[in-house]
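User: My collaborator and I are trying to settle a disagreement about how two of our proteins should look. Neither of us wants to argue from intuition anymore, so we agreed to look at predicted structures for both before our next call. Could you fold the first one, then the second, and keep them clearly separated?

Assistant: That sounds like a sensible way to settle it. I'll keep them separate. The first protein:
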Amino acid sequence: MAARTGDDLRRFRMRSHLLDGTASGGAPGTVRRMLAVQAQNLSGARWSLGLRTPGLTDAALADALRRGTIVQTWTMRGTLHLTAPADAPWLLSLLGPRAWSGRGKLWRDTGLTEAVFAKAADVLGTALEGTALPRSTVLRLLEDAGIPTGVQRGSHILRYLAETQVVIIGPPQGRTQTFALFRDRIPAVEPPGREEALARLALRYISGHGPATARDLAWWSGLTLADSRLALHLAAPDLAVLSADGEQSSVDPSYVDPSSVHPSSVEPAVLDARSGGPATAHLLPGFDEYTIGYADRTLVLEERHRSAVGPAVNGLFRPALAVSGRIRGTWEQEIRGGSVRLRVAPFPGEALPGAAGAAAVRAAADRYSRFLGLPVMLDGVDG
C-alpha cells in the first residue's frame, strides 16, 4: 500500500477528472471516462463536460445530445445524469431498484401503484413509437388515458418508467425537454450479472473520480455501504490502494508509479505562490462531479467553507472556483445582450495566490468564453 499526501490525492483526483488538460477523445469519451455526470441542471452539466474536453463547444455538445451519442436519464439516486448510451442499461439495472426502493410511502400517498405504472407504460409505448414528444404532450397523453399527473404524479411516473428502461429523455427541442422510448435511443445489450456489474461500477467510478473510498462510492451510486465495499473488492485486481492521513482510497494503479504522474498542462504555466507548482483554475458548475461526487469533500473543500458551496437547504450547490485543486471561492454569471459577466468571490481569508492565481482564473474565464461562443467579462480578480 502506497502512502501519499493530501496534495498527491488532489493531483490524482484532478487527473481522474480530466482537469489536468488530458485529452479525452471528445465529449462521448469524457462521459465514458466519468461514467455518469450529474445533470439535473443540464446547462451546468454541459459545462462540466466542456471543462474536461479540450476544444468542446456548447453547440457541439447540444448536437451530441440530439444525436444520442450522449444521453440524459435518472441513472442513480433518483437524479438526472449524463451517460454514454451503452452504459445506461446496466447502470439502470443495477442502481434503479435501489433508487425507487424508498418511495413506497410516497407512491401510496399519491395513489401510484404497479397497475398505474403498467398502464402508463402501455400508453407511452404506443404514443412514442419512433418519435420523441415534449414533456407537456406526454403528460397530456397520460391524462387523456385516465392517469392523473398532478401533485407531482407525472414526474414520479416518468422517472419510474425511465428507471425501468421504458422511456428516456429524448433529443432536446431548444430548451424543451422531450421523451422517447428507451429502445429507440439505446442499443439492446445483454446486461451483466450483478457481481460483474458491481465490479464494473467500482472500476469505472474510480477511473473517473479516484482516489475515492467505499463511502464515496456508496454516496455517489446510491448503493449500500456493504455493496460498495463488495464492488471495490471485486474490482481490486485492477485497482491500487493508497493511504493518506490514516484513510485508504482506491485509485488507478498507474498513479502509484511517480513517473506516470505528469504536471498539469492547463494553461497558463505560471507558479502558484503557495505550492511552487503550476497554478491552475477551474470554474466548476454547481453540481460538478469534482464537488458532488464524494461523501467526504474535505480533500478539496475545507469544512469551514462548505456552507458557501452547498448543499443549501434546497439541495442546490453553488458554482465553485477551484485553484490548483482546492475550492477557494464561488462564482456567478449574468448573461445579457449576447455577453457574459462573471463575478468571482474568493472565500474570506482565501485570496487567490497572487498574480499566478489571477492569471489562471482569467485563463479559465477565457476557456468558458470559447465554450459558450460568447464574450466574457470577469469581475473580482486583481493582479
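The second protein, kept apart from the first:
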Amino acid sequence: MQIITDILQYDKKPCAATIGSFDGVHKGHLSMLGELRIAAAKKNLPLMVVTFATHPRRLFNSDTAPFMLTPVSDKIKKLEAAGVDICVLLDFNSEMASMSAMQFMREVLVEHLGVKLLAVGYDHHFGKPVPGEGIDQYITYGKELGVEVFGTRPFIVDNMAVSSSAVRRALSSGDVGLAASLLGRNYSLSGSVVHGAGIGRVLGFPTANISLADEWLMLPLDGVYETVVVIDDATYQGVMNIGVKPTVSGKERTLEVHIIGFEGDIYGGDITVQFVRRLRGEQNFDNINALRFQIEVDIARVKRGI
C-alpha cells in the first residue's frame, strides 16, 4: 500500500476514494470499503482512503478525554489488510477545517489526488459544517467537478448501525463483547510494561503495569476484565484491572494485568491486551485477604470459562 503524507508532492492519477477518520477500522468501514472496491474494479481504478494523521476531534477540543480506538500505525495496517491501494494521511489543521465541502472536493480530492469516484458513508459529513448539507449536495458538487459520488449503506449489527461512536459507547459501559461484535475483533490496548508499586506480587498475583503507546487511546469502563495477552506473538489468558485499586491505593488510575501461567521478566517490553469480557466492577474490600480471595475467584472464572 502506498502511503501519502504530502499531497503537494503526490503525482496524482485517477482513483476511487473515500474519506473519513476510520478510527477503529470497524465492520462498517470494512463494508464500505467492500462496496467501493467493487465499484472501483468496474472502472479499473485503484482504491484510495483519505484519512487524517491526527483525528479532527483533537483540533476542535484538545481537552476531551481519550477516545481513540486505534493508533494511526494500527489503522494503516488494517486498511492495508482491507485491500486499500493508497492511503493519504492529511495534516488536519484550522485551514483545512475552514474549507467548504465543495472547496475540499475541488482543491484536495480532485486537483491534488485525482479522485474520479467518491464513496461517502451513510452518516459522514466533510468540510466546514453547513446545516442540511449531505450526500445529495455532494453528488451535485461531484457532477460539477467530474466526480461520481455515491452513498454507502450502513452495516447493521444487533439492530444498530456500526460506527466508531457506537464502539465508544460500548466501551464506556464496559460491554467489550458488543465492542468486539462491532469491530469484528476484540478491542485491544498496546503499550510497554513498566514498574508499578509491586502490590500484585505481595498478594501472590504479580501483574504487568502497562504504559499505553498512545495516551489518546480509550479505556473501557473501570473494572476487572478477562483478557488475552500477547507477548512476542505468544498468547496467554489474563485478568486485567482498570482503575484506582481502592482497597490498596485509591488514587492513580492504572492498567494492570495478571498473565496466567506466564513466568519471565518483561519490564520494558511490548505487550498487547485484548478484552474478552468484563468480570466485575472495581470493589473496595474490607481487607487484603478479601481482595486476595476475589482475585483467586476472578482467575478461576477465566481458567474455567465461567
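Some points you might bring to the call about the second protein. The first strand starts at residue 2 and ends at 4. The CA atoms of residues 7 and 108 lie 8 Å apart.
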